[in-house]
Every structure is written in C-alpha cells, then in structure tokens.
Sequence to fold (1180 residues):
Amino acid sequence: MKPATGIVEPPDIEPESATRSQGDQWFAEHAEVLRLADAASRARTAFTPYLESPRAHLHPVGAKARGQEWFAAVRNSALSGTAPDDAELFLPDEISPFTQEPLGVRYARPTPEQIFSAIGNAAPSWAAASPQERVGVCLEALDRLHQDVFANAYATMHTTGQPFIMAFAGSGANSLDRGLEAVVYAMRAMADVAPAAEFRRSFGAAEVTLDKRYQIRPRGVGVVIACGSYPAWNAYPAIFANLATGNPVVVKPHPATVLPVARAVQIVRAVLAEAGHDPNLVIMAVDTTDEPIANALIDHPATAIVDFTGSPQYGQELEQRFDRLVFTETAGTNAVILESARDLDAVLVALARSLCLFSGQMCTTPQNVFVPPVVQTPTGPVPYAQVRRRLLAEIDRVATDPRIAAATCGAVHSQTTIAALDALAESSQLSQRDAAHSPEHVLRQHTAYEHPDFPRARTCTPLVLESAARDDLHRAERFGPVSFLIPVQDRDEALALAAADAAACGAIASYCYTTDLSYADAVESAFFAAGASIGFNLVRQAPLNFTAAFSDYHVTGLNPAGNACLTDLAFVASRFRIVQSKTERVGAEA
Amino acid sequence: MKPATGIVEPPDIEPESATRSQGDQWFAEHAEVLRLADAASRARTAFTPYLESPRAHLHPVGAKARGQEWFAAVRNSALSGTAPDDAELFLPDEISPFTQEPLGVRYARPTPEQIFSAIGNAAPSWAAASPQERVGVCLEALDRLHQDVFANAYATMHTTGQPFIMAFAGSGANSLDRGLEAVVYAMRAMADVAPAAEFRRSFGAAEVTLDKRYQIRPRGVGVVIACGSYPAWNAYPAIFANLATGNPVVVKPHPATVLPVARAVQIVRAVLAEAGHDPNLVIMAVDTTDEPIANALIDHPATAIVDFTGSPQYGQELEQRFDRLVFTETAGTNAVILESARDLDAVLVALARSLCLFSGQMCTTPQNVFVPPVVQTPTGPVPYAQVRRRLLAEIDRVATDPRIAAATCGAVHSQTTIAALDALAESSQLSQRDAAHSPEHVLRQHTAYEHPDFPRARTCTPLVLESAARDDLHRAERFGPVSFLIPVQDRDEALALAAADAAACGAIASYCYTTDLSYADAVESAFFAAGASIGFNLVRQAPLNFTAAFSDYHVTGLNPAGNACLTDLAFVASRFRIVQSKTERVGAEA
Fold:
C-alpha cells in the first residue's frame, strides 16, 4: 500500500496486452470521438465527427468519383457479403425514382432458416465479448460507413428519391450521428453496470466477503425493419444499439430501397470479420411486397427485439407484440401554428421550402398549418387571405424553378404516393361543389416539375388543400407533398386543435411562429402536456425540420407517432439484461 | 467575466430562494444519503442508511413500545388517510397467521372511479414538479417509513406470517434499501436529461442559436400490485420509481396483507401533503379474493404502468398486456448444486436454515437440491445417502426446537399453502407404492411446530421430497416449505438439469457449493447463458438467500421468473419520456 502523501496520483495504466482484441484497439482509436459525442449528448450541444458537405476539397481526392464508380459498377451486378453464403440470389424491384430504370442489383435472399441458423452460430462469442470490444467494433463500422458516404449517397438517392445533397448529408452524416448517438447511450447504460465488486459486511458475528461478478447479457436477435424513404436514419441507431449490447441483427429493408441498406450491411459485416467475429451477426433479409418476410422474422423464437420505421398500421400491429421488445417510429400530423412573426416573408420562405423538401416525404415535414384571421407582424396585421396567397407564391417559387425544385424536392419514392395525392385532390375538388358536406378546397394542385438532370424523374410539387378546423381529412398522416391550410377563429383555437391532434393523431415535429412570449409559453405547455415537442420561430435553421443528434430527442413516445425515442436511455437500457455471480470467500481469505 | 487566474474557483452557490419547495429542502437534507447510495449502487458495495437491528439502544427511546402501541390501537379501528375522503369503509379478511384472529382494521375502499378522478386532479402539479423536488419528497417519505419501522414490523408480521426479526429487517431496512435504490436509479436516469441547452451551429451562411428546453414527462398512472408474503420488497421500489418519475400510483395489496401497505401509503400521503402536493398521488385500493379489482385498475385508460409481484399465472397474463409497461416478479424453481464443500456441516446448516426460513415463502428460497452420488469434502467423499440424512437432521434441529423454529420459520401466510403441501405429500406417498409411475418419495413430512408465543399460530416445518432427475414435479414453483432432493448421476448432470430448469422454469436465486474452481467456472457460464444469477459457497452469509440492495441485481428478466430487475436502468428509464422545445434566437440575439 502506498503512503498517503496527499498527492493525487494517476491511476495505474493497464499494460497493453498482446491479446488485446481488434475491437479493443478500435475502441482506443475512437475514444476521443466517443468522449466528445458523449459530452455533446449530455450537454445537448451541436456535434458531429462526420462531414455534412460533399464539397470535394473536404474529402480525400477522388472520393466522389469512387462513389460514382461504385454505383455505376454495382448496377446489374450481384452485391455479395450481406448474408450467409448458402443463400440464393434474388433481384428485387428496385427502380430509381430519378431515371425510372431498374437498378438491376441482385442480393442474397436467405431464408429465415438460413438466417437464424447462421445467427445461432455467431451469437455466443459476440455475447461473450466485452461491451468495450463491441463498442469498438461499432465505432469502427461507423467510421467505415463515413468513408463510404458518397457511395451511400448515390445508392440512397436512386432508391429513395432523395435529392443528392439530402442523400449525402441527411442519410450520411446526420444518420451516422444518430448511429453514433445510439452507441454512446448503449455504452453509457452498459458502463453503469460494474463488472465486479468486493462486498463486505457482517452477518451476525461473521465478517463476510463476497466476490461479485456482473455480466451484461443480450436479449436475443434484433429485427430491424427500415423504411423506404429514409432508411439510414432509424436503421443505424437500431443496428448499433443492438450490436453494442450484444444482440445479433437481421436488417430487412423496404423492397424498393435495398441497395443503401445492403451496402451498409456489407461494410458492417466486413468490419465484424476483420475484428475476428462472425459476420453473420448482421444479416440482411430481402423480400417483396407480395411475399413479405417481416412477420416470419419477428415470429422466430430467437427474435427478442424489433425496431420498425414505417406505416402507422403495421407499427401499431407490432406494438401489440407483447412478447417482443418493440421500438417504433411511424408518422404524425405535424402542425404549424402561424400566430405572429418578426419577418413574415422569412417564415413563409422557410415554411414553403420545408413543404417542398424531399417532396414532403420526411417524418418531420409539417402537414397542418393553422392560421388565425390575422397574423401579427411589426408592420401590422396580415389577413389570412394574404398569408395564404404569399405562402402559395413561395411554394411556386421553389416549384417553378427546375434547379431549385430539383435540389429541394428530389423525386417521389413511390408511385403510390402520387396516386394518393391524385385521389385526395380529386375528392376535394368534388367536395368543393358540395361544400356543405366536406369543406376542403384545392389551393394548389400538385404537379410534376421537369428535373434538369433526370427528365424521366418521378417528381411532384406540393398539393395544398384548405381544410376546415373541424374537418377530419387532415387528422391523419397524408404521406408525401400534401399540406393543409386551416383557417381558425383565433390563436387559442389554433393551439387547442393542434395540441389535441398531436395527442390523438401523433406528432413527430411541431412548429409555432410567434413573437408573443406569453403565447409561446402557453403553446409549449399545451404541447408538452400533449406529449409532443415543439420548435419556435425556426427560420434561419434551414430546413426548419432538421433535427440534430446529440441535441434533439426525436419522437417522444408519448403520442401515436411511435413508442421510441432517438436516443434516450430507454432506447438502449432494455436491450440487455444483467446476470451476476457472488462467491463467498472462505474464512481465512475474507 | 472573471479574469483567468489559473485558479479553479468553486462554482457559484445559488442563493437560497424564499420559494424553495419543501421537496427541494428535503432533497438538500437527504443529499448525503442519496450520494452515498448512488456511489454504492455504482460500486455494488454494501450500504444502508437504515437500521437492520431492532435492538432498543439503537433506536429512539420507546420506539419499539410505540410500534406495539400503534398496532394494538389500530386493531378493530378504522385506518384513515389511504384514499380519497369520499370512499366507503371496508373490512377485509385480514387474519393474523400467528393468532389466527381477525385484525379487524377497516380501510377506505375507493371505487376505480373515485381513484382515477382523484388522481386526475392530483397528477398535473406533480408532473410539473422538478425531478429534484419529487426525489426530495421520496427521500423524506423513505425516512419517515424508517422512523415507523417497528409499527411496520408488527403490521407485517401479523399479516404475512414473517417472524418478527424478518418483518423488522427484511421488510424494514432491506426493503427500504430497495426503495432508496429505485430512487437513486430514477434520479440517475432523469439527471441524464439536461434541462436546457444552447445549441449553436451554422446552416449555410447563417449562424443560428437555438435555446432548447427539455422536460421529463410521466407516462401515466402506475398500478402496483403487492404480494401477500413480502409486500414491501417489491412495492417500495415500484411506488418510489413511479413517484420520482412523476407518475401517480395506485397500490393494491393482497387482500390478506393490507395493513403494512396501508400504513406505508398513509405515511407517503402525509409526506406528499406536507410537501404541498395532493396526497391522492398515492391511493390504496383494496379488494377481496372473490371480487378482485386489479383488472379494473389496470384496464383504466389512465393506467400506463403495472408493477406486479405474485403468481406466475397472473404475471404471465400481465406480461401480455402490450398496451401497458409491465414489470413482474413471479417465482422460480431455485436450484442448489451440492458438488463439494470445504465444510459440509456448515453448508448443510446454512441450507437447512434457508429451507426453514419464513417457512420457504421467500422468492429466493432454494427448492431443488441436486446432489451427485458423492459430495467431495476435505475428509473424503460423502455419499448421497449420508448427505441426505445429515441435511434432514439439520432441518429437524431447527424444526424441533420451538424457539429456533419460531425465530426462523415464523408462520404460514395462507392455509392454501399448507393444503397444497398436504396434497403434494399425499400424492407422493401414493406414488411411493407405485414407483414405476411417479418416483417421488417423502423424505420428511411437513408438520406444525408449537410456537412458544402464539399457540394458535399456523406453522409448518419443511416437507422434503426425493425426486428423480427426470421427474416433472419439481419443475414448477412449489410455494411454501417444500423442497426436492434430487440425486443425479454426476455433477455434469446436476449442472445440465439445474441450468435447463432455470431457463425453462425460471430462477430468482440459484446456489452452488463447490471447491473446484473449474467446475465453478462451468456453473457460472451455464447459468449466465441460461439467463440466471448464481451464488457460490454461501455459508456465513446468513441467510444464504439474502440479497443486498445496491449490490445484488434481483431477478434477471431473462428467464420466466419475471421480466424486471431490482434495480437497473431498465427498471426506471421507460417510466418517463422526454419532450422538448427549441426556439430560434432572432439575428441580433443569436
């Protein structure tokens, strides 16, 4: 024992072991990123270790060209390394929303038996690895995905329809941040469990010492079901939260958005193999709309965890699976309350761009815009009719300039979305002739725009309907570029309706524009009580529906828009359990 | 701004506010206990701020007498302050297992409508209180419960049948520790959420600052269903985890064990009122076996969380409630593997006492004792028959001395338990005549013992059956003082059977006696893989089935004995959710 000198000495550094695992080495290499990300997630400040900008000088020479080359080469080829070797090849219906040509990429299509047999072999050694080793592998995998961000952008763009810049930043750095955030929280939750303890106390006259050991145990296989329009955003957190906590993963992409998921799975599996682990810890399953495989994966007795992003219908079905740990993000009827503005033009520009952005296919896109009879501004009240006219004009400014439209709207992921808009517009036009029954009006018809680079692109500018406050049409998510302008009696009615909808119909992101602090307080209270988050006066943050990993909690879990949050402790703490042993020292040793 | 002197200065101390809440003041008063408990739960070391010993000199003068007086006075009276005022009084079937006389205590029996109406009024201000204020109230309530520990002991003893010393320590300090532990984890999970942040980053050319606020929101009403034999142990953690995270609580005791729960609820409600909150944040519901109320409470739309301790049947029913957050602890077929021992006598004494302790009515009581043909000891191998004989002799030593039996066995909570033992013994005796069909043998018949202080006590010493390894009788929890001695071919079979049972039938606590380190490693691995915890060579820790808050994780959640753990982050992290606002600063302020 050292003498007490009063000087705080550094802790003993463990000598580097010759048998230190690859994962442990990676953990050491990425320790600073983990530390910064952890600090940011505690302080909720801005942070990313990844590049949001595709500008060439920020990236290694030729990075963009290599991404393009990879995308050109992968088309009409077989992409290997996403599943066990014995799986048959399969060509899904992947068609670029920009070219409307099939991608022609074939993938392994493992059967559930092949998947779970391979996972059964892979799982034990991963479960036995230390949390630190597993986290090291996850951090390295995120880094490799970042190195591949141009390839990911092209794969994402030509499956989801995202404009290139969104596919690069939103499905690149922003989604990687969400993955890193999940690793941070998983590490924090696991680090809360001490690996060992010496427990001393007396029982009667006996002084007893117990040596205790605690081990984190995974729950079982995690099935991750990714959505078609924005696959990386939710899939990365789910994949890495599961892997970090020791659970093997089956990733099931949307049948029309396989390529970016396959590419990510390929990279993660390569990293696992490089770390000396079985790549079958992560397996991609593919299916078709006609022959879905999700239920077979979820029903398998080895499956313990399900992460789902997609339709509220299937999400609710999954939320009823009491025998699985289910995390969902579905959809909401995101509201905007437009009460007053310092700079109404800037608000309407921001709002118009957000309605156009990725053709309204983001879960944070506003849908229902509540507007009182006048909107207060420093230059006086602006009547509803003028607000309506100016907002439509701003939307037209985006929609009628092909270069702006191309960069903002991108393409529409699925023809179904446009068909739904057609039907919605048609029924509203019919109802306009019979306004007593159903009071929607088409304020702006959705139209295709001419994409300057992809003349065959499936494009669509916003459909804007005017809807009565008491109408039901806007009280469900309408996917794609459709929004409702809802004139209300006054700002109190706007708040009452918007907050009630958030609680009853779900809200992922809600927005309010007001210069009145007391009204802002009332709005915040009402939305918090409704279990919804709210953004105020978002104008210069462009797009207004941006949410930042480490700072913004995405989805509250308190309203019907989903039961899980990216990322809080609840997202990770139940993905593992704790077993322990305790051993009584014999008398002389105690 | 202060100049940078290079000297680390203490942080500014916030001036004491005149409006500081009572909960905040209590938080400050109990800050050191919270800090020590938090540190112990991280290091998993021994800690308690409460007194385990009833010795008079440790307590305020007259404390024990006051507890006795309270218990005498409450009998045949009405105990007020557990429910809204408008509830009718009701006399449940509470009969002391020691005197077999009715307690005669009447309680408010609120209807579900009365309960949820009162909670609806009480909930908003509690949800709006800060985590710190709520935790302060919880810490004070725990302290008040500790001051009341003698009254609690008599109430517990004469409803559950626990011997006085267990009612005092196990349902006193040990259970309060579990409650404090839940508060520690709830505080830790809530403290992980920053209350506010300043978020700065650029969006294109714009430098944007967002002021963000984060608020913890409760999920809804928590229904806590306590068990009849050990109500405080699980009810305290559930009540305080819910209260700390902002959720109101309905506590539903077992119909025969109302008094200790009522007393605790009375105290917590008084503390809530003293803190300026509505006491209806905690309400006791009472029912009868014939007219159970649990489902009506759980089905209520305001209910979001259920904590249940009790039968595996109802527990499994609750675990299927996908629309509620359900935490269960039910029961397991706790195994003992007796492979080798340094001091076999000491092992058999410890084991015999544990089988007798509280008449085997603890969830950690061993049930299935696997013994190979010989048990290795320093003085040579001891054959199974001799181990069996010596274990039975040790049980008899407890059971035949009324003073030891009274202090160890206490009384049996329910006549049903004894009836089940009668049936089990009878069927085993029958089967002994027809051993080909069902190979159990009665090794020791359960008997009543004469309680020296309570001649009418419902007492029962252990029933010990010998069971074949492949028999099914021991592969379910047999509640009460019944155990199975199971001769096995060898130690490997012992391990294979015990670990398989833990995974398939559930295990809350498992035990192994071995002096062979390699065998201990194999046992630890097999139990960990089966999702079960294990104690080795527990002899001087008396009783061997003691589990320590802050150090032992109670229930793994990985096997059928329950889905929740006392206490890990998963026990608390899902009891609340997070909502947030973000407000963009205008140009000049950014």
